[in-house]
Design goal:
The chain is of the alpha/beta class and 400 residues long. The chain has two domains: 142 residues, Aspartate Aminotransferase, domain 1 (Alpha-Beta Complex), CATH 3.90.1150; 243 residues, Type I PLP-dependent aspartate aminotransferase-like (Major domain) (Aspartate Aminotransferase, domain 2, 3-Layer(aba) Sandwich). It is 40% helix and 13% strand. The chain contains 16 helices and twelve strands. The strands form three sheets. The protein has a seven-stranded mixed sheet with strand order 2-8-7-6-5-3-4, with helices on both faces. Strands 9-10-12 form a three-stranded antiparallel sheet. Helix 7 packs parallel to helix 8, helix 11 runs parallel beside helix 15 and helix 12 crosses helix 15. The longest helix is centred in the last third of the chain and has 20 residues. Bound molecules: ligand C6P.
Amino acid sequence: MRVYLDNNATTMVDPDVMREMEPFFVEKYGNPNSLHAFASQTHPALKVAMEKIYAVINAPKSGWVLMRTCTTESNNWVLKSIYLEEILTGKKNHIVVSEVEHPSVLATAKYIESMGCKVSYLPVNSEGIVEAERLREVITDKTALVSVMWANNETGAIFPVEEMAQIAAEYGAKFHTDAVQAVGKIPIDVQDFEPDYLTFSAHKFHGPKGVGALYIKKGSELTPLLHGGSQMGGLRSGTLNVPGIVGMGKAMEIAADALDFEMVEVKELRDMLEDALLEIPDTFVVTPRNKRTANTLLIAFRGVEGEAMLWDLNRAGIAASTGSACASEDLEANTVMEAIGAAEDLAHTAIRFSLSRFTTEEEIEYTIDATKKAVERLRSISSSYAYAPKGHESGLEARH
Ligand code: C6P
């Protein structure tokens, strides 16, 4: 059996999305900015797709939804543009990010820091959650931007972005949230708490790779980083990815319709997996279930090196991960496990299982069985497990 449980890294394209995209490769391939029928053939589908994208996040007509290649691009744009406009000009001198942001925010923040900007890194609590009150401790009227993700990619932990956006506004700072792990998993309404910027990618909710969106609130427009043509009002130049945008629109529409299914049925399967794996002794989960997205489980098996576990799972046909796919080659400990202060040996044992609406009960049963066997095998050959401190001495408790 082959089981895909790495949906926080990327997802399968929904066949209905694929069908919607198909005509825009060979049949209707005109550049939408050209002045002929090949171009205008693409306009109706582009318009419909954009309307769907605006509708699912409830973006007001006054705001911008700019189509981009991915969340990495959008996150870079937000941070670097704020640096150019607010920091380099001397208006402000500080930005705030969390310690557990994706590398596309963290590495960009570090780059900006190397250019002389002050950067504060908000810590997480023992549940892997950034608390809004921690923002109050560091924010000043010289803070240009607060950038905190909506849902964490490793634990699924949902952060109090509404409250943080409010605090940022009190100090005259812009607020950005990386919502790539939130869209399609929890309701999104940008008119609810009015972030200045919200970023996400289609490939996380069964849309195509290579297309993402950046929502910008009216009045918070950014300096373009790609100068060129007049596409997207000149804010984002470059020929539009027509099939990608059409696919993203369809994927968003389906994800919005499937939101209840995601929050109830996918959660049931995730909980089934979690309950069964927590029966294994010396097994830990960081974030409580009601504080994370329904599809995600980050679980640590003491004495079982994460990479060894992935090897066993992969041999059984199961795809999982030790955390963020971008960091999988460095063999570093899991970012969130480190941020909550888990002991070094335990931090290396975290495995992320991320489900989707295509995951079946049969696949979960198979995964439970294979994971239990792998833990047993790997612990039997683990010299560290025999001597490792057990149970609550780790500073982590199993959470149900
Ligand atoms: N996280 C993961 O395995 P792109 O690839 O640019 O569309 O998305 C980047 C990105 C940005 N923010 C968050 C919170 C993310 O989770 C990701 C992608 C994958 O966790 C691949 S590294």
